[in-house]
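Subject: complex prediction, re-run

Hi both,

The earlier run crashed halfway through, so I resubmitted it with identical inputs.
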Amino acid sequence: MQIFPRNANALPAVSLMGAGMGGLLVVLLAWYYLSPEFYEVGYQPEQPVPYNHAFHAGELGMDCRYCHNHVEQSPHANIPSTQTCMNCHGQIQTQSAALLPVRESWATGEPIEWVQVTHLADYAHFSHAAHVNVGVSCASCHGRVDQMEVVYVAEPMSMAWCLECHRAPAEYLVPPEEVTNLAYLDEKKEDPEVWDEYVAANEVRIEQEGIQPPQNCSACHY
Amino acid sequence: MIELDILTASDVASDDAARAAKKQPRQWRSAADRDNAPGYDQAFRKREFLDGAMGEDPHPDRRDFLKVMGASIALAGITGCRRPVEEVLPYARKPETVIPGIANYFATAMPLNGVSHALLVRSHEGRPTKVEGNPEHPVSQGASGVFAQASILNLYDPDRSRHARNRVDGDMEESDWTSFVAAMAQVRQQAAATSLVVLAEPDPSPTAARLRQQVEDTFPGTRWITLHPQGDDSQALGTQLAFGRPLRPQYNFSEADVVVSFDADFLGAEDSHSIHNAREYMQSRRVEVRTTSGRTPMSRLYAVESTYTGTGGMADHRLAMKAGRVSLFAAAVASALGLQTGAPQIELTEEEAAVVDALAGDVREASGRAVFTAGAAQPPRIHALCAALNGQFGTQAVEYLDPGAAPVQPVASQLREAVAEMSAGRTDVLLTLGTNPVHSLPAELGFAAAMQQVPLTVHFGTWRDETAQLADWHVPQAHYLESWGDGRSYDGTFTIVQPLIAPLYADAHSALEVLGALITGRDVSGYDLVRESFADRVTADFADQSFENNWRTVLHDGFLPGTQFPTVPASAASTPDLSQLAPVNDESIEMVVRLSSTLYDGRFSNNAWMQEAPDPITKIVWDNVAAMSAATARRLGVSSGIDKQTVRADTVTITGAGNATVTLPVWIQPGHPDNSISVTLGYGRELLSDRVIKDRNIIARIFDKDVDIYRPGPLTNGVGSAVEGLRSVNFFPVMPGVDVRKAEEDDYRVVTTQDHGSMEGRDIVRMLTAEQYTQDPDFIQDQIHLIEDTPWEDFPPLWGESNGAQDQIGDVMYSANQWGMAVDLNACHGCNACVVACQAENNIPVVGKDQVGRGREMSWMRMDRYYVGGEETDRPGMVSMPMMCQHCENAPCEQVCPVAATVHSPDGLNAMIYNRCIGTRYCANNCPYKVRRYNFYNWTKTLPIEVQMQQNPSVTIRYRGVMEKCTMCIHRIRQVQQYAHIEDRDLSSEDIEYVSACQEACSTGALVFGDLADPDSEVNRVKRNSRNYALLAELAVRPRVTYLARLRNPHPALVAAGYDPFHAEDGHHGGGYGSEESPAETLDV
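This time it finished cleanly. Structure:
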């Protein structure tokens, strides 16, 4: 008596193939969804004050360092104190409802509870000062903040991503005085010839100044 | 990959033979090691790790397994959740000097037992995280002791009292500072008619002295008693005998040729001037410096001791005898030197007579360069005798500082009278100012009962301790990092105590503020009080009369230069009459009570670092013991043994003064005098805590074993037993005759690290005498034994000039500096300051008694202590050796890591990459030095929030399942490298901008860290010394940390007579590793 039909003979092969494909699918899904490109990039939390970077840094052309004023000295690029906001907003937009938390903070001395956007693992030590002073543009890690109404994570902040620059700094370095000019690299990239020249010039600068971005583990992990 | 022969038993046996031929004594770790006790080989010597450090806790049963599996499935569903939202809170108004991410440093000072210790404290965004010595202060010179290092954890002690409390209907109920001030105002209204007793701790503050005067003026019926941890300040009483007023001896050991210690542990951290003493003493031992200046190569230290101390370990000749006999021996030494004291004669043993002869000869030869010191366990008369001896023989090396203090009275009569008044109901108000008399006073005084008769009792202290629980009022004491104050250093230098943080609890106030409230009946700020005192100083002392300028300068510097006490020459001392000195009954059992080397008088007893810092001598953690000699233990019929790698001890019940009893475990201490028992203060506390202990969440309850040391309540509760009450009120430290009996419990678990990390009985510490060294500087190099027929040339240093490795690495960032360290064993007396400094700097977890017993201690630095020789006489010598990651160039750990989590950095450090580590522990297995530490549990996650505030934000917190070890403070290195890079300059080794935490804490300069690539660096200069050797050099691992051999300076006559344990006779050589000698009959540990 025949319980299984003839075409059931294909079942082992099909199920093997299915398992293989399924396994592959799992790997591919994990590859994509468990990577920082997926779960870090695009994170755009709502802030207690709807601060508009595109307006302040873009349209008004304020320098990043007006607010993030310790970025050149400290490992942290500080979030500005309420006082920094009040330098201007003590005089303009003094009745704005959106700025109410700022005025409250100023009156009570309680800090504004900003939500952290860019997140680096605690076991990776990163110094803003070490990067900004040699000419790593703010835009290289934070993207075109001058075009973001609400700031979001622009880059994956993964180790492989860090190493892209550390292995080939010529494609990322800007002159130190241009680090807060977020459009600088984009403009260079518009014309391929200009870009090639720029990278070549950077190679010379790297050679001359002895710029050696460290690639060993202990540079960041300790 | 390097493959090396491993040492076989025959290799080691041949080492043993060579050692015996050279008359080198054996180095041993414990009595069990010395005696080859049954099971010792298997338990420790041949085991790299304790069983607990190898595997899981025993009995993970089926139930646990199912629980974990079930929970894993349940939790799998919630892994899709996003990471928690983190908030960033900037300042509303940012202080001008604070840059987030960059630490600030402030000068302040720690008062301890009447002496101010000048400090420089690091603050991260207003949160003090680390204490260092003040580099510009004349006493500190940048060094700090173990207690200063640990004091920061007392600030964040979660069990500190948080509220003022007032007794209402018999219960202590929460109150507040304002109500307390109001209560004091009421007291003040009847000031003239009030009989007030104040029990105060010694306070170095001039402001406190001023306020005390005001209290005595306001309250004419004041009886003010200053209570030292040891009852009396016998040094002050002794100098008062000799000079007519209390003085402080200042020993300039660097000028000394002979040092004689009568039971004085002057190097130990408990000594108020130990930083100065240790630095000066080690100067006198630096042969290289002394010979160039035309002096004797090295000073010689004779120590006569009633227990084993670090000072005894440094001694060239050490005698052990009962404390009472030390006094008589001191008199015998004096009479040998022609000083007649009328003391009772004692019969000297042959060895003692030989030592007295040698010592007297040396002292006469030293012509004014001899130093005599007496310890806290010696009566004031012996301190006076030392002053007289210094006056005759030590005028060039000893001077006395005159603090201008009022005459001191013995505390016994004051206490008796006060207690009698209190009992009779004649005292209206009792104020305990930073003291805890219910716990710390002898039981025979009956203080607690007398206290009940006082209508108003006020307790001011850090914890709700034993006295607080009986008092009517309790006010929490602010930590010195929270309060304003001032003080005088040991040498008199005026120092300022400035707060780095507002009191964590609003009710916490300083002693000055409590006195201010008592005097004025109002809330007076400590800041104003200190400024008032300082204003007097400005008008008196300065050319620039501007108050604010001077005030700001002193705040910045932390001290006023040139304010030392005036000195008095030693020659002004008169010889005391010792005819009243009590003769000693050799057969009765004496009890000596000491300050603990880790807990002090108990003020560090709720401090996790100090509970887990092994005692410098016994290496015991989380416990106090009755230390005694093997002979005394035999006499009492008690012993201790090893069972499953744990010391199991009998217990004894000691009956002290007033029939107070305590039961303590037995600890058999090599080198301890017979018929004497040593115990330490600070244990057996019962604190109440205001901390709310939260239940563990469901995930923690399923997954984590409860290893949280903070969970059961105050750390100190239930640790050890209190010996304070046993003391006699006449003389607190020594009870000449106590009744000691074997107690019922015979299976007490004593946890000690002395046998952990055994290096298979090899001679780890190299030693030579000053004579050998001056005659043949390369003497030590002969002792390095490499295994023959190993092709050593195949293993060149990775970072040398002539090998390919450098090319492979290339010229990359950070490779310009090559870090290394040199440890001068000649300058290390094992004080633990580096161990605790490392713990504070690197967020090293504390694991508790049980886990240490399993070999899971986490300290990156350990202080190995070896006994040397003396196997038969029970009078061994002692050496200490700081041990941390050796940063091997051919690191064995790196070669076995399957995930490359431990790798070399371009600057030659053996780096540990925590996020890569998967916890195989192969690296620890392959480490010949046993310095790697594994996180068996997530120790840090459960820390109370207060303790977390101490943690250093520059150092990664390690998770369960991760290996860790000494990083040479790489976070400090990377920081200076980054700023040097930004400023486009090379790191200079001249201005030392980078030191490791251990080096920073060391007062003797024993640890030198620096750049090996710079030929002029200090570390290279030290390593060029011919005493330099690498530990286990035969393994060709090429450690970056090297050691300088220990030097000794024994008297030739005493060596010839066979009284030098370091100089083994042929017959004395004990059985080392691999020997088949029959084990000793009884097992003493």
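The first strand of chain B starts at residue 27 and ends at 28.

- K.
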